[in-house]
Amino acid sequence: MNSRFLSIGVFMTLMLSALLAGHHGYCGAKEAITADLNQALMRTLEEERDNIVTRDSIRAYRQLRLASDGPVWLAIADRRLCRNLKNSKLKDKTFLSFDVVDAACPDAKAKNNFIASDTLIVNHKATGATLAIKSYARLSCAAIFRMSDQRWSSLLAFSALLWLIGFKFLIRRKQTEAGELQIYGGLSYSAKDGCFYDAHRIPLHLTPMQHQLMRMLWEAPSHSVPKEELCAALWPKKADANDTLYTLVRRLKPILESCSGLQIVAHRGRSYSLETKQIGDCQDNIRKMSASFRADP
To answer: C-alpha distances in angstroms, 88 versus 33, 35, 93, 95, 139?
Structure first.
């Protein structure tokens, strides 16, 4: 698999996991707020069941409902309810609402930016009315998000960011290395390391003389060097080094051909060149064809 696609896949997986973790934390915060509203309302009703909603509040509710000819939603700030909340961040955002349960008018509904507790049905002894009581917290999505546990989401998002930065650094490093490497015939040479590498980036184990010969052939403009120049550079104090050069080339050939698409070709005893095997095969075919033409009468 392409490493680029694999890295993008890992990044997208981490980001998707961060989003899912964030959504889970957000939903968990809403559930925790609802549970807090429920327990605070229950405790408040246990403390003062008949005084939580007064006779005057019920009368005002009925008059407003008749005057409006429709649902009425009353929000009542109650200190006792706020005191029973466990989450201190909700105390200045929470209030009570009630409906008189009868057939005169349907229940009013709160808007979307409110989190409501469960509905508790109680009988108001002073008036004999049946009340549907709820507690509400007015919170925006951003406020709920701030109250949620986003540690896993943040960790995954941070990991995705680190992965992206590391991937970009790796790409730049590979591009830099590619710029430093000279590649020919499946073989590469690093001027920085002074080493030859095969196609799998494994260094070639060459003797000092083999390495020097490869360097001369590699760095020549056409990858071809005369025998005299090779002998003079490799054995400057030796009068005739042709046989020694031949032995050196013979031992280097199998190493080179086993790990690359290159071969060392001798040109009528005058020079040696570093060529790709395809070029060498074409030249052999040309020489064979020329020889056959000359042999024909």
So the answer is: 11, 14, 10, 14, 14
